[in-house]
Amino acid sequence: MLIEDAKRLEKIDRLYELRLDQYISLPVLAVVGDQSSGKSSVLEGLTGLPLPRDSGLCTRFPTQIVFKRSQARRIEVSIIPSSEPGERKKVRIHDFSRRYSQDGDAFDPRDFVAVLKEAAEIMEVPSAGQSPEDSSHSFSNDILKIEMAGPQHEHFSVIDLPGLFRKPTPGQTTKEDMVLVKQMVASYLNNARAIILAVVPANVDLATQEIIQMAEDADPERTRTLGVLTKPDLVDRGAESAIIDLVKADGNVRGLGYTLVCNRSQSNLGASTTERDQNEIDFFNAGLWSTLPKDRVGIAALKQRLNALLVGVTRNTFADVMLDLENRIDKVQQELDSIGSPRTSPADQRLFLLQISTVFQSLATKAIDGYYGRDLCFERCETLRLATVVMVENERFSQNMFRHGSRRRFSSDEDSTSDDEPVENDGNKPPTDSENAVNETFEEQHKEYPELRTLKPVLAKMQHPKEESVQEWITRAYRNFKGFEIGTTNPSLLPSLIREQTSSWHYHAGSHTYNVIVRIHSFLQSLLHLVCSDTSVCDRIWVRIAPTLKAAYKTAMDHVSFLVNVESSGFPVTLNHYFVDNLKKQRLSRIEKRLGKLKSWHTNDESKEPLIRLADTVQSYVNNEQHSIEDLHDILKSYHKVARKRFVDAVCKQVVDHHLICSPEGPLWALSPQFIARLNEDELHHLAGEDEATLIRRKNLKIELESLLEGQDIIQF
């Protein structure tokens, strides 16, 4: 073996000592099989250790056996815990460590039994003759490590796993134990860098061996699975040919194929290792077995193949192991960073919340200012682009008001259009999908945001368009309001008409405000989870600021009602010169329409307008009632246009921009540094105090990071 290969194998063994196999895939030679497969005999042949028989100990936990070349002969026995042990168990594991000077057969089966029994007690699994009821666990993931050093050894490492069993043994194993052992074995088989040594008896049908199926599931191409056939001396006479064909059939067997070994028989259980090896050689030199290739039979050939496979997989994956270590270190460090520093004191908790609040407010400010290029979060999540989201809602609200802001369509809309706004849709048509968005939004959002349900009753009921024409409606109202006026109109009629014509404004404004609230609510929740990775802290903060948010939303909805009340009550008031301009246009348009219906003729001068008789113009005038009704229509339309624009601006500026965006009491500032500064110690502990799960998680991550960093030092130097 090359020195570089030996060093790599030794480094991998040291990574196993740190139990880094729990975090990354490490090269390993795993011996697996049923309890009666002859697995222990194969392991004894590979290692030369005097494995005890019928002790039942090695089946309770994995056993790693490591060989190292050294001038001094020694055997070291230790336990590698599967997780961070408690203080009591840690002391017992430390005290358990054994070191033997290997001299001849000093480490005999009795010593081995004593070591296994004590290891079982420390791992809290049953020892020989002990019932599982007397122990905490039936099986353990802790690893018993036996390291053997001497000048005669090449570097070699193997892990023996508990044997699979199909039926529970009363007083020894249960159905739950069957599942546990199978899961333990599968965890090693599924390691893509593991060499699977699947041990099966040659005198049974391979199709019935569960370990063969498990190995094929984990390694379909069998590129890392080597089958070991045992007990050839028990094969029925005449059935040898099938076994020989299986071992020889390299071209018909995928992957690494099979190797055949001969274990000790019952008659020579007391034979030495040398005698055992010679008996095996004699067996394969006799009869049909002598036709098998020598590199496919015997424990020596098996060990040579395994050693080459282990060196190869370690050499080929060593760089990947280094990369996996680096990636795992980065991941654990990120998780620790996401948890943050320990928060045990009120000062630590306040600092933690202030850090969240500061980042939260910074991103919220960028979101409403539209500075999306200053943080990547705005590119990854469009819902965080709050300024854009709100402006889209404002524009939709403005369009809805232009199209459906009047209960009845004004009669002159069919023949004239404004130069600065779209033509109003037919008032008799139902609202479009965008007008009904609030109802859909509420139904979609109330499950996610049940706290917004209380805002729904604040919305005004939708006032559907009237089928009655505006002229008929004004005529009816004019006659119903008629008093003792002479040549004039009842002064209370116009406010009543305005109130009726603008009765849908409350619905549209309330719907728009609610939609903006939903967008802001979603923005706040997404932003909070972005700046605070601790979901439990996020949930507690969200519950804590929810009343403040609801109060701010309620204030905004109340202001909508206030603006609607201002527009619908009192006297119609405007100093906007566009009202006079619009009224003038309406009156001139009406006169032009009327005069345009009179008979006229052209002169020979093409530059002159058509002529009409003055007497005809006098006849075109209408009676006093009709004139009043038409004038009311023009005044109502002109005022409605000015008031509608004023109302849209007021809602967008006062309700949305002020109450929901910019106000210090608004929802965007609920998680301000001032809010954090006012929290008392109990509130700090409730919001930022760490629960037991977080404390355990940080502790485990620190332990893992420490082991990973130590492993990185080992593998790099």
UniProtKB/TrEMBL annotation:
Matches recorded under InterPro entries: Dynamin (IPR022812), Dynamin_GTPase (IPR001401), Dynamin_GTPase_CS (IPR019762), Dynamin_N (IPR045063), Dynamin_stalk (IPR000375), G_DYNAMIN_dom (IPR030381), GED (IPR003130), GED_dom (IPR020850)
Record region (Disordered): 405-446
Composition-biased stretches (Acidic residues): 413-424
Keyword Nucleotide-binding applies: yes
GO terms for biological process, alphabetical: endocytosis; intracellular distribution of mitochondria; mitochondrial fission; peroxisome fission
GO MF entries: GTP binding; GTPase activity; microtubule binding
Domain GED: 629-717
Record family assignment: Belongs to the TRAFAC class dynamin-like GTPase superfamily. Dynamin/Fzo/YdjA family.
Protein known as: GED domain-containing protein
Lineage: Eukaryota, Fungi, Dikarya, Ascomycota, Pezizomycotina
